[in-house]
Amino acid sequence: MRTIKRVITSQKVDMGGILLDQPLPYHGVDQIDPFLLVHHWAYTYKGGQQQRDIGVGPHPHRGFAPVTFIFKGAVHHRDSRGNDGIIEAGGTQWMNSGMGIIHSERASKELAQHGGEFEIIQFWVNAPAKNKMDQPSYQPLTAEETPTVIDKKVKVGVVAGEFNGTEGNIKPYTNLLALRLEMEAGGTVTIPIPENYNAFIYQLDGMLETSGTTTHKKNLTWLNNDGKSITIKALENTRAILLAGEPINEEVTAYGPFVMNTNTEVLEAMRDYQMGKMGVLIEEFEN
């Protein structure tokens, strides 16, 4: 059974006027290979707004997969490869940015106009050097398309990888396990994790007990690579995610939305973006 390496408490960060909880990166922890970043954003829209005025407008990515788990509300994704769609609560947007893509991430038109709760987690998964210049791809997954394992007081949504014989529908660059957990107080689950995978749990809310340690909302629980499974008990009703992956073990050089292996490659990404080689995204909005 795995033990706990460290419990990290999220820090508030301001991303272009959006206030987020960020447990990764953290002081002295640049990544948990292959995971580079975790952002948790919960917000209540008041309504009476235009969709064009909310969320994150067109911006580029290269060299990794930005992934969004939607917990409340809905996210409208558009990108320079022609993908355009809305994923609602319980769903996932998994984008392999590859050689470069421009996308926007906005709350749905309905949320902008009528208001309501909005909550997402976005995490970044590094790509191996051999895949950084692949053609980009976008993999949307609705709640209905997410295989789910239910056992008494525990519901596990399998997004990528395999849990209890159920396999996720997302196909990432590398071997990963990405799970969404909904646990009622008193519920317990044991999750097998390959011993060579780096792994952590992030809690949106509630209280958990893992390896004798109690953790709380907005905690990231980083696990040691000293066992083949982890047992989690809910002390309160809790929503969480578990991410685990085979480390890539390559040099990482990042600048903003570009994650490459060398400074030269980052400069090339900036140049290619400025020259329009990652495409163009012109958003169209209904009044």
Could you characterize what this model shows?
- The strands form 6 sheets. The protein has a 7-stranded antiparallel sheet, with no helix packed on it. Strands 2-3-4-11-6-9-12 form a 7-stranded antiparallel sheet.
- With 287 residues, the chain is mostly beta strands.
- The longest helix is centred in the last third of the chain and has 12 residues, at 263-274.
- It is built from 2 helices and 26 strands.
Keyword list:
287 residues, mainly beta, 7-stranded antiparallel beta sheet, 6% helix, globular
Give a brief outline of the structure:
6% of the residues lie in helices and 52% in strands.
The biggest beta sheet reads: 7 strands, antiparallel
What is the mean predicted local confidence, pLDDT?
A: 97
**Unreliable residue stretches:** none
The radius of gyration is: 18 Å
Q: Please trace the helix and strand order, writing H or E for each element.
A: EEEEEEEEEEHEEEEEEEEEEEEEEEEH
The end-to-end distance, rounded to whole angstroms, is 55 Å
What is the element layout, followed by pairings?
Elements (H helix, E strand, L loop, with lengths): L3 E6 L1 E5 L2 E7 L10 E11 L10 E6 L2 E9 L1 E6 L4 E5 L3 E5 L4 E7 L1 H6 L1 E11 L10 E5 L6 E4 L2 E7 L1 E2 L2 E2 L8 E8 L4 E5 L5 E6 L3 E4 L2 E4 L2 E5 L5 E6 L3 E8 L7 E3 L2 E3 L2 H12 L13
